[in-house]
Amino acid sequence: MSRSSRYAILFVVAVTPRVALGLPVFNGEATLPLTLESVASQTYRDFELLIVDNASTDGTEQICRDFVSRHPFARYVRHDQNLGASENFNQAFRRTTGELFRWTAGDDLIDPTFLEACVRTYDAAPPTTVNVFPRRRFIDSSGDWIGDCEFRPTRRIELEGRSIGVLSYRELMELRNNVAPAIVFGLMRRDALDKTRLIGPFRSADCILNAELCLLGEHWQIPERLFSQRRHDADSWRANLSKEEQARWYAPKPKGGTRFPQVHLFREYLRSIWELSPDRNTALARTGDLMTFLRIRTGRTASDKVYRTIDSVRGRALWGAEEGALGARAWLSVRALARLTKDPDLVGLVRPWRRESHEVLADILTPLIARGDKRALAIAEAWLHSESERPIRFEAASIAMEAAGQSADRYVEP
After folding, report:
1. Which of 119, 268, 108 minimizes the C-alpha distance to 202?
2. Are strands 109-110 and 218-230 parallel, antiparallel or unpaired?
3. Residues 225 and 350 grouped into a single domain
4. Which of 222, 351, 391, 407 has the fewest CB atoms within 10 Å of its CB?
5. Rounded to an integer, what distance in angstroms lies between the CA atom of residue 364 and that of residue 327?
């Protein structure tokens, strides 16, 4: 190798930032400026930012070009046509070179110390760590705080005075899909990502990527809450409600179809296990974890259907309630019967038949109003307007509203 070649290699190594951020975006003019400013405010400065525009039709292009002109660490690439979110995300990774990589969504925010905290953790972590991510909070379309995600891995280790959560493959399988963004928007090792299929052209591809990385190393959650995920009507899941729309968001021609998405997802998980596991015994163990996941997922689906049916029956009991509240009494007795295996309270079976009608109706309304059930609130409002017509319903609604901490005054006509 010539001396000039060696110097060229050393120069490239010297100027290549350690961290690369890929920001895939499509029509993000409403939230993109704040996202870009949160990136620019990072206390850790050895990073590059690549913005990949998926043929936006709003003011995204101008926002990006203005930002790039002011910040030398940023670059901007624009596609001539929409390639789908999957390919756009993957292009954001493939066109960068940093040792550590993070996807940054165009509507989320990161705190100024996000990169500093994650890089510091990598400096003290073993090479088996492939993803470091912080805890997250939720913000609305205006950027106001609306809640925190309390997910924390069960296994804990102490590192430099911090309690680090280490996510196992089995625990990852048991998580709901809405936890996936907390993990996939972490800071990841490039050499590990290179061994995965990245973001596939199908629904829940981010969950598959998280699982593949977990087969290659460890996901570490640091205790700081440094990631703000925005929840608004234009985000990917609220803007694409059907399975077909969600699949097309990932790719214009999604793979795996949408008729049996869970079957396709199971096949993708299985494929990852047998392609990335280091040996047969590990693959068999991970397959066992996957079967546990399927059992839990099936149970959740069945449970959701049961509760939807229960809510329907409970609603009918309320809407059809007359002065005797027969339906409500029957409902409470059935519920008590279902609980006998956990709470052998035989009195609960007959209690609804001994109480006054308005008390029975209030017993059903109260927990529904307390959790903000819109149908229950509508029922209570209607009943509060029927004092002379149906006094029992009026009494029931008044008791329920008060017990749930709601004011009934605004619903009562003067």
Report:
1. 268
2. antiparallel
3. no
4. 407
5. 11
Residue pLDDT, tens place only, 134-166: 999 999 888 899 889 888 999 999 998 899 999
Same domain, 269 and 308: no
Query: Is 249 or 28 the better-scoring residue by pLDDT?
Result: 28
Q: Is residue 139 part of a domain?
A: yes
Q: Are strands 218-230 and 100-103 parallel, antiparallel or unpaired?
A: unpaired
Query: Which strand (E) or helix (H) includes residue 310?
Result: helix 280-319
Check whether residue 207 and residue 320 sit in a common domain. no
How far from 356 is each of 80, 96, 362, CA to CA, in Å?
Answer: 70, 70, 10
Tell how strand 155-159 and strand 74-78 pair up.
Answer: unpaired
Statement: residue 310 has pLDDT above 60: no
In a domain, 287, yes or no: no
Do 267 and 349 lie in one domain? The reply is: no
3-state secondary structure of 367: helix
Residue 376 inside a domain? The answer is yes
pLDDT digit string, tens, across residues 215-265: 999 999 999 999 999 986 666 544 544 667 777 778 777 766 556 667 788
More confidently predicted of 31 and 292 = 31
- CA torsion sign for 253, 258, 260, 264 is positive
Phi/psi for 178 (5° steps) reads -75, -5
Amino acid identity, residue 141?
S
Tally of structural domains, the chain: 2
pLDDT score for 175 = 84
Using an 8 Å Cβ cutoff, are 344 and 338 in contact?
A: no
Residues 54 and 171 both lie in one domain: yes
Q: Which domain holds residue 370?
A: 304-411
Q: Which residue has the tokens 């790719």?
A: 251
* Same domain, residue pair 46 and 122: yes
What pTM was estimated for this model as a whole?
A: 0.69
- In this structure, what are the phi and psi dihedrals at residue 135, rounded to the nearest 5 degrees? -75, 165
User: Where residue 307 falls among pLDDT bands split at 50, 70, 90?
Assistant: very low
pLDDT > 90? residue 67: yes
**Per-residue pLDDT at 367:** 80
* CA distances from residue 121 to 130, 158, 224 in whole angstroms, order as listed: 11, 11, 12
